[in-house]
Amino acid sequence: MSVERFGKVAVLFGGTSAEREVSLKSGQAVLDALLGAGVDAHAFDPANAELTELVAAKFQRVLIMLHGRGGEDGTLQGALQQLGIPYTGSGVLGSALCMDKVRSKWIWQALGLPTAEYQVVDKSSFNADLCGDILSRLGGIVMVKPANEGSSIGMAKVSTATELQEAVTQAFQFDHQVLLERFITGQEFTVSLLGDNTLPSIRMQTPRTFYDYEAKYQSDTTQYFCPSGLDGQRETQLGELARQAFAALGGSGWGRVDFMQDKDGQFYLLEANTVPGMTQKSLVPMAAKQAGMSFTELALEVLATSEVRR
Question: pTM of whole model > 0.85?
Fold first, then answer.
């Protein structure tokens, strides 16, 4: 791959979201890889600089490594389009929909794609007296998720009405809308997408209550299996479901789709990510390595997704 065609590249990372710490690690890893490959790449933190400086500094394209709000929710993508600067990954609509867990569920459900039973509660109308009924209707164990956060921030697994009330109240600190989802007992998988291809699936296993922020980024007890242990037919099935789910939300370029598999072998969609983690230990690089791709090759492929918006 000739890197000269990319020109002057800004790697956007850091930002002001709740995922800033993870973004700093992802962005630095990608920046180092691009520099090692000879790309004219530069760090750019929107928390410390205005986006208009990208124009003033004559950047020719942007690689987005901002996780969460302000980087993954369509707002940055819209700004870059207005500035006329090509950028990596999904566009405005795909970014916004994939970031919103509630609207993702609505679209997947409308298309008949498998997703767990759920209920949406709003900060303005939430009634704690309904917690018992909600818990019962959703099977007795519920995952509480702020609608627009990533990295499991603000999430909780609850099994009593009191726990549900407390978890929803906590989640409202991150978002005005919260998704309550029936907990699926089983194995967790993720599938990474790169261009038109799916990478080998990964199975995650943690001794913690669920695959939360600590399990993802801080714990040494989380186990990752790649290959995931699925047979060829199941692997193909899961990859196709990932493609359908990502496309349904308008996702493009690259991303990751997360799943649960219940004891009967049924897969359920959890969420889609348009700017997944890209540290040396993250899931997408792990899947790429299994597919025979180095971290540097992966970073260049991600950068190449900006070609569609030249």
Answer: yes
